[in-house]
Automatic annotation (TrEMBL):
<dbReference type="GO" id="GO:0046872">
    <property type="term" value="F:metal ion binding"/>
</dbReference>
<feature type="compositionally biased region" description="Low complexity">
    <location>
        <begin position="577"/>
        <end position="593"/>
    </location>
</feature>
<dbReference type="InterPro" id="IPR012301">
    <property type="entry name" value="Malic_N_dom"/>
</dbReference>
<dbReference type="GO" id="GO:0051287">
    <property type="term" value="F:NAD binding"/>
</dbReference>
<dbReference type="InterPro" id="IPR012302">
    <property type="entry name" value="Malic_NAD-bd"/>
</dbReference>
<comment type="similarity">
    <text>Belongs to the malic enzymes family.</text>
</comment>
<dbReference type="Pfam" id="PF03949">
    <property type="entry name" value="Malic_M"/>
</dbReference>
<keyword id="KW-0560">Oxidoreductase</keyword>
<feature type="compositionally biased region" description="Pro residues">
    <location>
        <begin position="594"/>
        <end position="603"/>
    </location>
</feature>
<feature type="compositionally biased region" description="Low complexity">
    <location>
        <begin position="529"/>
        <end position="562"/>
    </location>
</feature>
<keyword id="KW-0479">Metal-binding</keyword>
<dbReference type="GO" id="GO:0009507">
    <property type="term" value="C:chloroplast"/>
</dbReference>
<protein>
    <recommendedName>
        <fullName>Malic enzyme</fullName>
    </recommendedName>
</protein>
<dbReference type="Pfam" id="PF00390">
    <property type="entry name" value="malic"/>
</dbReference>
<dbReference type="InterPro" id="IPR037062">
    <property type="entry name" value="Malic_N_dom_sf"/>
</dbReference>
<dbReference type="InterPro" id="IPR015884">
    <property type="entry name" value="Malic_enzyme_CS"/>
</dbReference>
<feature type="domain" description="Malic enzyme NAD-binding">
    <location>
        <begin position="298"/>
        <end position="547"/>
    </location>
</feature>
Length: 651
């Protein structure tokens, strides 16, 4: 259709009104300089274009400008009202698959409303658009298929892959998510019906990452399936043949990668999604040097777990090289995480070696190297770092005796050890400090496994990954951590910080001394005066401050000069109120008086005698004592402060 723009007589141009996605402006339909049939056809096509359709949200001017008059009901409904109505309809469904179908229908007719709905309700709709509902949708994709949402490249298109890519209407593609459907979310071989995974993944990239929908391209490579159920299903939409392997498979993948680079350039990102283990590692290693490729199962999951490990180690102390790792699951995710941890450990140890070389200090870590200079000049042996990492698969612990039967990506993590069949035996034998689960089998981190981890770890990182909900507890001991007496427990530390501490007698005496030191002249600070001198400190008994309320019969002592001050490193005061109530307690740091003393709380009223406020002029004689007036005498709560502090604070 010819590209044009409406003139001022018919209203604003379409590019000025429907400019949500600039990547599709050139391909958007617009009325040509023809008869009324063309104009009516352009309005009808606009309502069926999901990129620019707004449904009943078109205004009166837009309906006249785009020839929509009569094609829509007269009511004008805002996008917010449409969102409210659709959420009401989605919540009325009891079957999760029905919600998925409704969301896909919305994406096919009104794309902007779909993403607004997903962004505003991401916590509620994320499980619908992606896992776990998308797994059931892929299993029944042939039955719920409505219209194509991506490109399908099959063995029949061999030799014509470039022509197939050119059939896609968009040209400015930035991200391609491609799958062959052989390992969909641990559900097995779903063949061509794995298209739901790239579609859902790219929807999240747009809603959460801000990638333009027109820059995303989901692709499914159909090379057959080994799933007998799908081959016998009358609604299956893919090739009804056994899955191609070997040279035939790799030739099609090679042609596809070359066509992508030729059609979309070198900067397009190709993400391999849900490929089988034996193909995922080979494809990533083969094309990582010639194309911009990424595997979410191997690299994406590993980066997130490594970030969690580094954050956890900041809280409990130590480094990556000081830990022993045990993985449940040795697939793409498990081996990918293990490999990235080993690389990060090798980087850390290399930095240790460089630091030791500059300071002539020995290196303490997992490596035992006699000559540091030779170590720095050569490549870092990552194999030594892998020895700190153990993996358990469906047949037990990966050990050297099983190396011949293991897949190639598992062999680097097979170490010398006796064969163990269960996770509990591996935990009891290896005694790991970090336990990570990457298996699709549920209920494997049993109570016995967690108790075994807690028996030889004061703070086990397995608890941080499994029971992160305990970090939000407040006024109760952390039972989920199974270590209620540990001072490192974040929950108990937050609980203790929420309660004000009453000072001990020793702390009160030290505060009294510090307050008296502030009233001592600089010339006499730090030394004791001789008896009989004008600056000799005098200590005399003093009765408790007068009060109308009964006061304890305890005598107090007024000290005019403290002993020699011992400097101590002050601990930083915690100012974070994260996890606590937003309303500060009466004795919190914000409600305490800014001027000394820091105790008692606000209800005590202070009376400053003459001469106590000025501090610009220092004299050789001690200043007058600053005594608090009893709160009982002023009608306030709290009682006598002098009787509680065993002394009168000099200021």
């Amino acid at each position: 259709m010819a590209e044009c723009e409406l003139n001022s007589a018919t209203g604003p141009g379409r590019a000025a009104t429907l400019d949500q996605d600039p990547g599709t402006e050139a391909a958007s339909p617009c009325p040509a300089n023809g008869g009324s049939d063309v104009n009516a056809q352009s309005g009808h096509q606009l309502l069926r274009d999901p990129r620019h359709n707004k449904g009943l949200a078109f205004s009166e001017a837009e309906r006249d400008a785009h020839y929509l008059r009569g094609l829509l009901p007269p009511a004008i409904v805002s996008q917010e009202h449409q969102e409210k109505k659709i959420m009401h309809n989605l919540r009325s469904y009891t079957v999760p698959l029905h919600r998925y179908i409704a969301m896909m229908d919305l994406q096919e007719r009104n794309e902007r409303l779909f993403y607004k709905l997903l962004i505003d309700n991401v916590e509620e709709l994320l499980p619908v658009v992606y896992t776990p509902v998308v797994g059931e949708a892929c299993q029944k994709y042939g039955s719920i298929y409505r219209r194509p949402q991506g490109l399908y490249i099959s063995l029949k298109d061999k030799g014509k892959v470039l022509e197939v890519l050119k059939n896609w209407p968009e040209r400015s593609i930035q991200v391609i998510v491609v799958t062959d459907g052989e390992r969909i979310l641990g559900l097995g071989d779903l063949g061509c019906q794995g298209m739901g995974i790239p579609v859902g993944k790219l929807s999240l990239y747009t809603a959460l990452g801000g990638v333009r929908p027109s820059a995303c391209l989901p692709i499914t490579i159909d090379v057959g399936t080994n799933n007998e159920t799908l081959l016998n299903d009358e609604y299956y939409i893919g090739l009804r043949q056994r899955r191609a392997t070997g040279e035939e498979y790799h030739e099609l993948l090679q042609e596809f990668m070359n066509a992508v680079k030729q059609n979309y350039g070198e900067k397009v990102l190709v993400q391999f999604e849900d490929f089988a283990n034996h193909n995922a590692f080979d494809l990533l290693a083969k094309y990582s040097k010639s194309h911009l490729v990424f595997n979410d199962d191997i690299q994406g999951t590993a980066s997130v777990v490594l970030a969690g490990l580094l954050a956890a180690l900041r809280m409990i102390g130590g480094g990556l090289v000081d830990q022993t790792y045990l993985f449940l699951g040795a697939g793409e995710a498990g081996t990918g995480i293990a490999e990235l941890i080993a690389l990060e450990m090798s980087k850390h140890v290399r930095q240790q070696a460089l630091s030791a070389l500059s300071t002539d200090q020995p290196v303490h870590g997992v490596l035992r190297i006699a000559d540091i200079e030779l170590f720095v000049q050569t490549e870092l042996p990552v194999d030594d770092c892998r020895k700190k990492i153990w993996l358990v698969d469906s047949k037990g612990l990966l050990v050297e005796s099983r190396k011949e039967s293991l897949q190639h990506f598992k062999k680097p993590f097979a170490h010398e050890h006796e064969e163990l069949k269960t996770l509990l035996e591996a935990v009891q034998s290896i005694k790991p400090t970090v336990l990570i689960g990457t298996s699709g089998v549920g209920k494997t981190f049993t109570q016995e496994v967690i108790e075994a981890m807690a028996s030889f770890n004061e703070v086990s990182l397995s608890h941080l990954f499994l029971d992160s909900s305990c970090r939000g507890a407040k006024q109760r001991p952390c039972e989920k951590c199974r270590n209620p007496s540990s001072s490192r427990c974040r929950t108990r530390r937050r609980t203790r910080s929420a309660r004000p501490r009453r000072p001990t007698p020793g702390a009160r005496a030290r505060r009294c001394s510090r307050a008296a030191a502030r009233s001592t002249p600089w010339s006499t600070r730090g030394r004791r005066s001789c008896p009989g001198s004008p600056t000799t400190p005098t200590c005399s008994p003093a009765s408790a401050s007068a009060s109308s309320s009964p006061a304890p019969s305890a005598s107090t002592t007024t000290c005019s000069s403290p002993p020699r001050r011992r400097w101590r490193r002050r601990r930083p005061r915690r100012t974070s109120t994260r996890g606590l109530s937003s309303r500060p307690s009466p004795t919190s740091a914000r409600s305490r008086p800014a001027s000394p003393p820091r105790w008692p709380p606000r209800p005590t009223t202070w009376v400053w005698p003459a001469g106590c406020r000025g501090r610009t002029t220092w004299s050789s004689t001690p200043r007058a004592a600053c005594t608090p007036r009893s709160t009982a005498a002023t009608g306030e709560r709290g009682g006598s402060f002098a009787a509680r502090t065993d002394g009168v604070i000099n200021q």
